[in-house]
Fold this protein.
Amino acid sequence: MPSNAQRGSAVYNVSDWPNDVISGFELRGFSLLYASERKLFNVTSPWGSIRFSRDPPRGNNIYSLAVLAEYQSNLSAVFLVCLKMAAEAGTPLLPLSTSGYREITVQVSENIPVGTVLVQDLGSVVGVHDARRYDIVSGNDVQLFKIDHVTGRIFTQAEVDYERCRLHRLVVHITVTETEVPVTEAAVFAVVIISVDDVNEYRPVFPVPVYRRTVFGSQLAGSFVTTVRAMDQDAGRFGRLRYRLQRSTSSFIVDRTCGHVWLGNPVAMTSQSDDVIKLGITVVAEDAGGWADQVRIELTVRPGSTDPEPRFTRSTFEFAVEGSATVGHVVGRLSITGSESAVFSVRRSSQYFAVDRHSGRLIVLRDLQTMSIAANSQVDYTHPPLGI
């Protein structure tokens, strides 16, 4: 690097390197994983230009950088760049000690015990000998992992959680001693990718024990009844639920993925009839691990053609809830008059609360961490009920 470089100066461009390593995939961009002087450099994405973020110090300084090139979520490459400042203009650049780069992948299950050893001896795994010191220089911002500076043993110092982060990329700086004379130190970088496997921790839970719906008059086959929705705090495949009837029947049809329920057979009523027809089924929600919950649907078909316009019983509803409430907790119910077939919706969404479309129950959508969180959502109703 020239001795007269200053803030904003382009130092190097690595944009041509990814094409030489990986072809056939679209490059998303570059980012700086590590720099021996972190505040001195930045990498412009998606062009791969390395620049000074402030005026560099003068002198024969040597810098090491690790640049990440990302193609897609499971495909990336790390490039190691060694830079040396010239002491003054016209000073010849001396050869730099070659720095190496290694990469390994470790597969672990979430919630393994704290202190579990992930890599016993990193130097032996990546083929580095005469290592003097190991340091994690990037990817450990929340301090989930720790490395023994002498042995290179990597272990957990907190629980890893698939729902929070599925992939951790640790950049480890390994200082090695070169055997040439005079004896010097060189840097080797190892990227340890820790892939966290999902564990089926939570059961699916319906927020209500029963869905009650009322319709008026004859109903055709294919008429929408309701949507049942269970909650599962797992992410990934264990958080994807499938819905089915507990007992096979031709009276109802259930969508496996969405939980929508329709009539399978028509329900006919005469205008002179005073009878009330009641139908019921049980729907099961099941995750990929076989854990399940069930809910009852009770459908009442009454004579007539319409029901009165729905109205809220209050202009404002206020509910008290503890700050320790978890997902699925029912805070309260919004009551209406004049209709049993209205459906509810949230006009101004909240990350902590949701409303059940048909019962009007206000449900905790996300674990409440403190008691200072307030719900600031406005709920509407729609009449008649809408099908999806």
Remarks:
- The domain at 308-388 is CATH 2.60.40.60 (Immunoglobulin-like).
- Residues 92-98, 370-375, 379-388 have pLDDT under 50 and may be disordered.
- Residues 311 and 336 are 5 Å apart (CA to CA).
- The helical segments are 17-21, 122-126.
